[in-house]
Amino acid sequence: MADSAFFCTLSHEGVLAVRGADAGKFLQGQLTCNINYLSDNLSSLGARCTQKGRMQSSFRILLESDGVLLAMATELLEPQLADLKKYAVFSKSKLTDESAAWVRFGLDHGDAALSSLGLELPADTDSVVRNDGLIAIRVSPQRAELWVAADQASSIKGKLCALLTEGELNQWLLGQIRAGIGQVMPSTRELFIPQMLNLQAVGGVSFKKGCYTGQEIVARMQYLGKLKRRLYRLQLEGSELPEPGTQLFAPTHNSSIGEVVIAARGEENIELLAVLQAEAAESGDIHLAALEGPALHLLDLPYTLDRDKEIQR
Length: 313
Hints:
Blueprint: E1 6-9, E2 13-19, H1 23-28, E3 44-49, E4 55-64, E5 67-73, H2 74-87, E6 94-97, E7 102-108, H3 111-116, E8 128-131, E9 134-140, E10 143-149, H4 153-161, E11 165-166, H5 169-178, H6 215-223, E12 229-236, E13 247-249, E14 258-265, E15 270-277, H7 278-283, E16 286-288, E17 295-299, H8 307-310
Parallel strand pairs: 1-11
Antiparallel strand pairs: 1-7, 2-5, 2-6, 3-4, 4-5, 7-10, 8-9, 9-10, 12-15, 12-17, 13-14, 13-16, 14-15, 16-17
């Protein structure tokens, strides 16, 4: 095992289930990702938007049994469930909170542990493998989620403990930040359109699937607009984590230039993802919470934005 290998319980998210004969058809008109691309071996990131293209939630979605499962921030699950049920009235689909039915683990450099469970997970991001009721998903290089039925969780955790160090959720979120994967949280609900979180760059938006709620705004931004705000990775000295939604400022502007998306403690400093005005970000003079607040420094993301490539999905 690599020295950096660890696992942790993904306690910050819940699981929304949509099951039934019309589950896929119903969600195809609700979500940014293409349900038809999903398979037993492929999952996706995605979002649900308002009519104005603002993200109400973001999630990872996968097929399971007679429907699909969506993992999202726990606090967003009940509002999304209530809202989706309004549109599912005439659909042969049933929406429920299945958070209690699943325990999800995040594994960093844990492929050997997955192999010991009979899960040979490909390196390709979004790939899925299943064995004996277990589901493993590649979420970014060297990082995987392991979905376990609740009644198996204690046994599986024991096996993981024998092979991996049990880490903290902060370590997992740090890996997510370094992978450049943003996430809608309660305090940032309906604040961003998908492109502001670079969701189209990590496979969470399909521009070939046809209509869905908010699609007109999202497509217009991709084809006709110039994206003025997008996701950046930054570093902040100190130990106090800024909350999602905390505003960022630049001396060259008289108002906020962006908001924190998620943050985690690194080895020496705090790392975070934030949506920033591109013009202000390029100046490099960015401060937390106030013009005189702590300075932030830009870090690299592991991908580039490529509109021509993105619209092929």
